[in-house]
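agent: user wants the full assembly modeled, not chains individually. Plan: 1) parse entity lines 2) check alphabet per entity 3) run joint structure prediction 4) return tokens. Steps 1-2 passed, two entities, 624 residues total. Proceeding.
--- entities ---
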Amino acid sequence: MAKYGYGVDIGGTMVKMGLFTTEGELLEKWSIPTNIEDEGVNVIPDIAASINANIEKHTLDKKDIIGIGMGVPGIVEKGGFITCVNLGWKDHPAITRMRERTGLNVRCENDANLAALGEVWQGAGKGKKDVVMITLGTGVGGGIVLDGKLRSGFHGSAGELGHIPVNPRETRLCNCGNRGCLEFYASANGNVRLAKDVLNETDMDTPLRSIEHLDSKILWDLAIEGDPVAVDISEKFCNYLGLGLAMIANIIDPEMILIGGGVSRTGEPLRAKIEKYYRGYAFKPVKHIDIAIATLGNDAGIYGCVKYLLDE
Amino acid sequence: MAKYGYGVDIGGTMVKMGLFTTEGELLEKWSIPTNIEDEGVNVIPDIAASINANIEKHTLDKKDIIGIGMGVPGIVEKGGFITCVNLGWKDHPAITRMRERTGLNVRCENDANLAALGEVWQGAGKGKKDVVMITLGTGVGGGIVLDGKLRSGFHGSAGELGHIPVNPRETRLCNCGNRGCLEFYASANGNVRLAKDVLNETDMDTPLRSIEHLDSKILWDLAIEGDPVAVDISEKFCNYLGLGLAMIANIIDPEMILIGGGVSRTGEPLRAKIEKYYRGYAFKPVKHIDIAIATLGNDAGIYGCVKYLLDE
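--- prediction returned ---
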């Protein structure tokens, strides 16, 4: 019975890593920079060297290690080839390369999917079996855990909650090529876009007009202080999220919804406002399910990596 | 190893029944009327008597029968209590009652969920593992099969696709108490509602104005003949469906989408038009999945009942 597992969350700037017990205890965590030069050809060798050094430092026996779980900001297709624009990877055989360099079992999944699995294992969803997590960051991602297992989807794209169409009347294009995606309004960038839309539509005075670089935190701080324009923006933001989450819940009927990602640091004011709109759109059987803020923060992904190895 | 199974699809007017081999062959099918008097207290005794008579007729050994699968037009809650407005049932212990009267194993699920499972077992989804089926009838229902198994949901309401919010700007109420549900536009009744909306908005001449009782078939017949107003109605109808199906596919990433129910008898003109809108709204990885018309018709439910017994 393996006793340890490595979680590796590969981001465009940093790679977060953790050594866990298979019971779910995080023993050590550290980061290394992501070297995306030369189509990201060094990313896997750098990670493998770091893990091999960690194994040596703790004089671990490889037989005691269940493997390496990796989270990537992209879709892992059948066959294990991975395309991640942020890492410079195109059909990159990352899993095979990592196996070759470590001699360990390796599994790889989308980072937001693994964050959801991590929260269900040791975070805000602990003890639950049917959980949807939405991740509000630069973009909007998500993950779906059904009957305790991650739903990857037939093409590896289940839980891509940022691209649910929530506004068929939108004329501007989302990065994905469609229009009216949830991410277009409910990401950190979307929040700023909504703010600009509202500022263009109103003549009301607001401190927002004098701020050169608007961001989601400033918008929420002012909304919490009661600035009417910022409040209006926050209502629109949460309306889209409540609508999107109601669509999801009406379809898959989960036990709980979690909200994670950088924007979720706003906490209860955000949660309560999303919940208000959600309840207005949700079908009766799912109207009163728990909606909670995720608790593992940036570590959710590395937790999920190890749980994903255990679920193999 | 059991050789036979009974499928029982309980509707508000008729109960459809079938005797199947566990290989999926329908050996015999028949119907009895649904007696919904006295809060539907006779529904289960009538079905049990009919099945007991069938067992006797074929001199089957109960050891050779895997059980009775039942589909009901409602949500089967944890604990097995069933509420179906159409049958007069409120927290009805139908499963226990059926067991007592037949001595057989009994399982019960929502009828649209079982129709999806039936299509995946022996119909248009045969050989597929991840399938969403939407049922366009008096209302809009649906079922979701993931990794070959039915997704019932935490509260038994997964796949209630009729109540996905597709139009946040709607002011009129759906039967469920919310606004802008897919069923409000994409059921047979919704089709007529859309027609009336379009007729009120246009002065164009159309044979539709002289028809006293519009129904979905008349609307589609005229659309196929090329009447511009009927075409406009059919476009709006399929736009809502394409949007709703794209939401579903973006979230759960299925292999295939099936369209069933009475309205689906229109066949290819309906399918192709839904597909057109779907492709406009769907996220890239699921944009080109198969969308097909279901093939088992009214028998899908009884097939699904028996597969549900096999999956226990």
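agent: reporting back. The CA atoms of residues 46 and 147 of chain B lie 36 Å apart. The first strand of chain B starts at residue 4 and ends at 10.
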